[in-house]
Amino acid sequence: MNRTTLRRTAALVGSVALLAGCGATVQQPAPGEAAPVVVDNCGEQISYPPPQRAVAYDMSSTEKMFALGLADRMRGVVMPSTADPAVQRSPYLDDYRSVELLSTDVLSREVVIGAKADWVLAGWNSGFSEARGITPHLLAEVGIRSYQHTESCFNYGARPVQVPPLEALYTDLRQIGTIFQVPDRAEALVADLQKRAEALQQHRPAGDPARVFLYDSGTDQPFTSGAQAAPNAIISLAGGRNVFDGLNQRWTTVGWEDVVESAPEVIVVVDYGDRPVADKIAFLKSHPPLASSPAVQRGQFYVLDYGQAVSGPRNIEGAEQFASYLRSIGR
Length: 331
Known about the structure:
Blueprint lengths: L4 H10 L1 H6 L3 E2 L10 E5 L2 E5 L5 E4 H10 L6 E5 L5 H6 L3 H6 L2 E3 L5 H6 L4 E4 L13 H5 L4 E4 L16 H15 L3 H20 L7 E6 L7 E3 L4 H9 L1 E3 L8 E3 L2 H7 L3 E6 L5 H10 L7 H5 L2 E5 H4 L5 H14 L3
Parallel strand pairs: 4-5, 4-7, 5-6, 7-8, 9-11, 9-13, 13-14
Antiparallel strand pairs: 1-2, 2-3, 10-12
Helix pairs in contact: 8-9, 9-15, 10-15
């Protein structure tokens, strides 16, 4: 994967048609340089020379890079300490160990600039942030290009871009593949994910889907997934229905009264390091408003790994495993 500039240029020439199909345009390179590409990210046309010192934030970004075989093009990762238990369970653990951990805190300009990064991958409000002073535009001022997860474009700018979660994932994989000039890898990966998603759709059980409440965190108010985040697609593909699929939001807080009214038959609990998953389930079982819900009465709790819950290459795996669980309880 450490190609010379000449080899990258030759490979790019052979891939022009494929890049055009991804909505990218190829710019003419200076003599001896690989050609930049232009892709549409969150409604903005951005020119990307092939990155050599990429920084990824959190598991969503990092595992998209790893799934495309790009660990050797990464300067490092910024991974909040709360994600570490999920990292240790990841099938990409060897890749994680091969890339420098730059910080266990939130993404910051200081870390990115200190790492001499030339490209940053993160989500809006889950990495990039006006409040913390690290935005694509501010990084561009110091010569660092950025790419935002398509799912997070829903919350970005004056004209948000709304794309269904799985299509957002496929878009990211293709466009990251385009930026790093490995479009063949991206197409092969997307084709596999799409094939598996189609198989799940074809085997959805007949009848009303199981009512599913996804619980991430929160005691006073639960934090959950609306229609625009990956768990909504995971639950649907598996044969269930997210009880908050009517909320045109990504991750959001709701009221316990709304959860109770939805009468969930299954509660999916995200295994994230903010709190042990066993403690989350114990809280839900003991929370008086939920006592009469079918999920609590039947003890139907399902643990979803954090690496599967965020937008990334393991979303389909998460749906496949949850589908098996629903079949096991007769749903």
